[in-house]
Amino acid sequence: MELKWLEDFLSLVETGNFSKSADIRHVTQPAFSRRIKSLEFWIGTELVDRNSFPITMTPAGRAFRGTAEEILRLLYSTREEIRDGQRAHKSSLNIASLHSLAICFFPKWLTEIKPNLGDISIKIKARDLSECIQALTEGSSDFFLAFGHPKVPILLDSSDYPYLVISKDQLVPVSKLNDKGKPIHKWPGTAKKPATVLAYTPGSMLAKIVEQVWKVNTMPEYNIVYENSMAEALKGMVEEGHGIAWLPLSNIQSELESGKLGLAMNINLPKHKSWATDIEVRLYRLKNHNRHSVENLWKIAQK
After folding, report:
1. Which residues of 26-65 are buried (b: 16+ CB within 10 A; e: fewer)?
2. Where in the chain is the domain with CATH 3.40.190.10?
3. N or C: which end of the chain has fewer CB within 10 A?
């Protein structure tokens, strides 16, 4: 049995299409089909129902899926441990993080917890939401640092991937201020003058949270003129006066205090509840992970 057969099988489970999976796996469709057949021969029964479209799993295929995923997770996890020298004298941890948290939150948080970590190396990899989830579930990362919101679920089973809330923040709409201290872009817009919005890339965590904020009220009038998954990129655009963006309050505290940026509405922050929302910074992990360095960081994060 070859490792690539398991990867082929899980790709087919995901796409339900031999041709599409063959493209993803960079092989011809006949070669891909032969590899699936080879896996079925090794198992001793058919794993996929080829008479359905999209392709579905047989009862045996559904039963084998979890085993295939666990085998790959353990193999990749062990490979990463060996490559990163985690079995050498110095312990290390891998953290997958959303870009904005890796840049703005993690350095300060590491300063707070480092005295209790001991002699350990931490590698943080900034990735998109789906890539972070994949890194955690495949075992190439020990932790996943994410934004959280009660109305925006992350597709991780909490029984297998518990999380801690290690910080809280607020997402607020901001604009550059003019010489009189007034926002040059206002929210919400009108039919005659739609608001100019700098948005998060669709599918990103902060984009999903902003969508929930907008659902609280009547859908506003707006035009999206720029998209980026990183809060820092949107912040730069706001500072140049290009539009309104929803930014974490902790990222713009000094700009608000200096008057460089301000709320996109003439409402004091404590009263501004409908267009702002509370968010969490969460640390996810695989529940059954017994490495000492993982358990140690988890205990520190709980304090």
Report:
1. ebeeeebbebbeebbeebeebbbeeeeeebebeeebeebb
2. 91-166+281-302, 168-279
3. C
Q: What is the pLDDT along the chain (303 residues), one digit of tens a residue?
A: 788 888 998 888 888 899 998 998 888 999 999 999 999 888 889 998 888 888 888 989 888 888 888 888 888 877 776 766 544 434 678 999 999 899 989 999 999 998 888 778 888 999 888 899 999 988 889 999 999 998 888 888 888 899 999 999 999 999 999 988 889 998 878 888 888 999 999 888 999 999 888 876 666 688 899 999 889 999 999 999 999 999 999 989 889 999 899 988 745 434 444 688 899 999 999 887 767 888 889 999 988
Distance CA 1, CA 175 (A): 58
Question: For residue 302, what are the contacts with CB-CB under 8 A and spacing of at least 6?
Answer: 164
Token pair for 299 = 């205990």
Domain 3-82: which CATH number of 1.10.3720.10, 3.40.50.1000, 1.10.10.10, 3.40.50.300:
1.10.10.10
Retrieve residue 186's tokens. 């206002």
CA 275 to chain centre: 23
Q: Which of 135, 206, 129 is nearest to 173 (CA)?
A: 206
CATH number (3.50.50.60, 3.40.50.1860, 1.20.58.480, 3.40.190.10) of 91-166+281-302 reads 3.40.190.10
Task: Fold for 168-279, please state it.
Answer: D-Maltodextrin-Binding Protein; domain 2 (3.40.190)
Cβ atoms of residues 223 and 230 within 8 Å: no
